[in-house]
Write a structure and sequence with these properties.
CATH topology of the largest domain: Rossmann fold
Bound molecules: iron/sulfur cluster
Shape: globular
Distance between the termini: 19 Å
Number of helices: 11
CATH superfamily of the largest domain: HUPs
Radius of gyration: 18 Å
Structural class: alpha/beta
Strand content: 5-15%
Number of domains: 2
CATH class of the largest domain: Alpha Beta
Helix content: 40-55%
C-alpha cells in the first residue's frame, strides 16, 4: 500500500506531508507533485526546502505544456465551469502515475479545518471512483493559517512569494479563481502574467468575466478596484 500526498507546493500540503511521514515513515510515502510549469518560480525554492526539511524526495509528473500552451491548443480559456487546465495539467498526469503504480494507494489531501465541506465533496467523489482519500489537517484540527504559521515560525522556512498577495500558491494567474479582487491583485503584483491573460482573452475572444474584460478591469480606478476583495476567494481544486 502506497501513501500518496498530493504535494502542490502550498503550505497545507507541506504540513500534510510532514503529518503523513511522521505517521507512516518514509518507505511507502510518495510526495506527488503535478508541475503545471505556470507557477511563481519561488514555489520551486519552497518545495525544495520542504523536501530538504522532510528528508524526502518528491515525485514530479507533468503534461509538459504550460498554461499558455494549453490555452492555445484548446482555443479558449479555462475557468470555473470549464477547468480543463486542472484536468490536463494536474489530474491526468497524476492519474497516469497512480495507475502505473500497480498497487493499492490512499491519497492525502490538504483540505484544512476551514474546508470541511470541500473535503466531504472530495470524499464522495473518491468513493464513487473506488478510491480512498484522507484529510490529515482536518483530523489534526489545523487551519490554513495554522499551516502557514507552523512552516514559517516552527520550521523556519519562508512561504512562497505569492502568499504575500494571494491566498493560494497556484498558477499565476489561476483561471479558476472567480473573484475580480483576485484578478486586480494579479494586475497589481504580476503585471506580465496579467497582460498575457488579457492577450489570451483577445486572441480567443473569450472573457474570464461576463460583464468586463480583464483589460477593462485593469483600467478601473484604484477606488473601484478597492471595492473588490483583494484575494482569491475561489481556490483551485487542483489537489484533487
Ligand atoms: S492552479 Fe488554476 S490555472 Fe493552474 S491548473 Fe489549477 S485551476 Fe488551472
Amino acid at each position: 500500500m502506497k501513501h500518496v500526498v498530493k504535494f502542490s507546493g502550498g503550505a497545507a500540503s507541506a504540513v500534510v506531508a510532514k503529518l503523513v511521514i511522521d505517521e507512516i515513515g518514509h518507505d511507502d510515502v510518495i510526495l506527488l507533485y503535478s508541475d503545471t510549469k505556470s507557477e511563481h518560480p519561488d514555489a520551486d525554492r519552497f518545495r525544495a526546502q520542504i523536501c530538504d526539511f522532510l528528508k524526502h524526495e518528491m515525485t514530479v509528473v507533468a503534461d509538459g505544456r504550460d498554461l499558455w500552451e494549453l490555452i492555445d491548443d484548446n482555443h479558449t480559456l479555462p475557468g470555473q465551469f470549464m477547468p480543463f487546465c486542472t484536468q490536463l495539467l494536474k489530474q491526468r498526469p497524476s492519474d497516469r502515475f497512480l495507475k502505473a503504480l500497480g498497487e493499492d494507494f490512499i491519497s492525502y489531501l490538504g483540505f484544512s479545518i476551514d474546508e470541511i465541506r470541500r473535503a466531504q465533496r472530495s470524499d464522495a467523489r473518491a468513493a464513487a471512483n473506488g478510491e480512498r482519500v484522507a484529510f490529515p489537517l482536518i483530523n489534526a484540527g489545523l487551519s490554513s493559517d495554522d499551516c502557514k504559521r507552523i512552516i514559517r515560525d516552527e520550521w523556519g522556512i519562508c512561504l512562497p512569494e505569492p502568499y504575500k498577495y494571494l491566498k493560494h500558491n497556484n498558477c499565476i494567474p489561476c483561471f479558476k479563481a472567480g473573484a475580480k479582487g483576485y484578478w486586480a491583485a494579479i494586475a497589481k503584483h504580476y503585471p506580465e502574467q496579467f497582460e498575457r491573460a488579457c492577450q489570451a482573452e483577445e486572441k480567443w475572444n473569450y472573457t474570464v468575466f461576463r460583464d468586463i474584460t480583464l483589460r477593462q478591469l485593469k483600467d478601473l480606478s484604484g477606488r473601484e478596484i478597492e471595492m473588490f476583495p483583494d484575494e482569491d476567494t475561489t481556490p483551485c481544486m487542483c489537489a484533487l
